[in-house]
Amino acid sequence: MERADALWHLFVKELMKFGVVGALAFVINAVLVWVLMHTAWFEDSHIKAKFVATVVAILFSWVANRLWTFREKRQENKRRELVQFLVANGIGLAIELGCLVFSYYVLGLQSATASFISGTIIGTILGTVFRYFAYRFWVFRQELDEDPDFAGSREEEFAFITGQIPVVQGRDETPRTDSDAPPRQV
């Protein structure tokens, strides 16, 4: 049961890190797409503005997830990992753009606000769910049991989980008992 609790805590820790990176990437994406949609270059093309903003957010996400969220789970082959990361984000981008295209062309909602909600809010939520599972199980795929936060033995792991510190004795020392302790002075 302790192992299941430890696995759950590691999952929650990883998910929270992913959430922080995702929140920051979302802010970058949202601010940039909103600014770009109100510039002369992109005011007639919300889809291009969304594409540029998402690419910038993906680059931020790559660095932050690689160096912080999944730093212990990186692959040795960096090129392969980068290609997998870009493929996962390409699919995530397609999900976001798909929401925007559906809203813009099928539903006819063509205001900047409607595009922002469909592409940046709804699309990002759906794309983020996909990205987490793609990162966790395909890009950064080291097994959770191999996480360095786990101790070397079940006893050390239990001590880590419960907060107990194991008593370490030197090689030449024998365990002390209360009768070996020096007398206390009052």
TrEMBL record:
Annotated GtrA/DPMS transmembrane domain residues: 17-140
Keyword field: Membrane, Transmembrane, Transmembrane helix
The segments labelled Disordered in the record are 167-186
Q: Does the keyword Kinase apply?
A: no
Cite a single Pfam family from the UniProt record. GtrA_DPMS_TM
Compartments annotated for it: namely: Membrane
Main localization is membrane
* Stretches that traverse the bilayer: 20-41, 47-64, 85-107, 113-134
Q: In the UniProt record, does the keyword Transmembrane helix occur?
A: yes
In the bilayer, the protein is annotated as: Multi-pass membrane protein
Comp. bias intervals (Basic and acidic residues)? 170-186
Note the superkingdom of the native organism: Bacteria
- State the protein's name: GtrA family protein
Q: Which family does it belong to?
A: Belongs to the GtrA family.
